[in-house]
Design goal:
With about 280 residues, the protein is mainly β. Helices cover about 5% and strands about 30% of the residues. It folds into 2 domains: about 40 residues, no CATH class; about 190 residues, no CATH class. Bound molecules: calcium ion (3 copies). One calcium ion binds next to loops.
Length: about 280
């Protein structure tokens, strides 16, 4: 048997079959089994037999390519993949008071890893990241004003910015967020569509004067899939990052990605996780 293709549309060729009647049984992950009987091979003639899988679909897939397992320690090593760079854009709060440069991603079979680089030496502001686990579905929180919390910097939830509405990016809705303070007070929270937050105990997060690094296990990102490093077919993650202040009611105009209107961003950084659906 010669394997010609295993793509969405492909073919198999069986060579040198003796004259006979054949039955072919075919399966595809997530679909039913097809049995085609009565295929007659006679006098060396060739036959085309069409398999058409219908109904059903894959429920889970593997991330396309495990890249690396970065050390989450606040130092950006060279095993990250840069996915967005703001081209040297400096916000109105200038470099002394925190400024993002770039966003980086990696993953392995266990976790998704995200990092931001920049000038994070200032101690009066916070690094906010909003993470959409299923970009394209429009699920999650899109109006950050719904997040509960006081207008101060005492907790992650209080620091999460409340000024941004993602209505202009209808595919985006955040399921997770973090907000740092002083490079030490930082944690990941889940976000519900109504603004409810829950602190997450799993994953790692670290920050320094020039990098923020974090990990989220796939099992936390996609609890409905039961773990084991699986993701939804064609999964895309999206991220929006901003510099917040010592209250949740002010922010720098230096974000990832850079947008015209920080209160109503019209773009986010989209990260394809699975492109082959399996
Ligand atoms: Ca590191
Ligand atoms: Ca910048
Ligand atoms: Ca979402």
């Amino acid at each position: 048997m010669e394997l010609w293709s295993i793509s969405a549309t492909g073919s198999f060729e069986f060579d040198a079959l003796a004259d006979s009647l054949y039955t072919v049984v075919a399966t595809a992950p997530g679909y039913g089994t097809l049995t085609i009987a009565g295929i007659r091979v006679e006098n060396g003639t060739s036959q085309n037999v069409l398999f058409e899988f219908t109904g059903g679909s894959n429920e889970s897939a593997m991330p396309d390519q495990p890249w690396a397992t970065p050390l989450i320690d606040g130092t950006l090593e060279d095993d990250w993949n840069e996915i967005y760079n703001d081209g040297g854009h400096v916000g109105l709060w200038n470099l002394v008071n925190m400024d993002y440069d770039s966003l980086h991603v990696s993953w392995d079979e266990d976790s998704l890893y995200l990092a931001a680089s920049g000038n994070f030496a200032g101690t009066y502001n916070s690094l906010n990241l909003y993470i959409d686990a299923d970009y394209g579905e429009g699920t999650g929180l899109s109006d950050l004003s719904l997040i509960n919390g006081e207008d101060d910097y005492a907790t992650v939830v209080n620091r999460l910015n409340k000024l941004v509405n993602f209505d202009a990016v209808p595919d985006f809705g955040a399921e997770f967020a973090t907000s740092t303070w002083g490079h030490v007070d930082l944690a990941l929270s889940s976000l519900a569509p109504d603004g409810t937050t829950v602190a997450l105990g799993r994953g790692a997060i670290a920050a320094s004067a020039d990098a923020l690094e974090l990990s989220i296990p796939w099992s936390v990102l996609y609890p409905g899939l039961g773990g084991d490093g699986v993701v939804p077919p064609y999964a895309q993650i999206a991220v929006f990052a901003l510099i917040g202040s010592n209250s949740n009611s002010a922010m720098s105009d230096d974000s990832l990605p850079i947008v015209d209107d920080l209160n109503a961003p019209d773009s986010v950084v989209v990260i394809p996780i699975d492109e082959d659906g399996q």
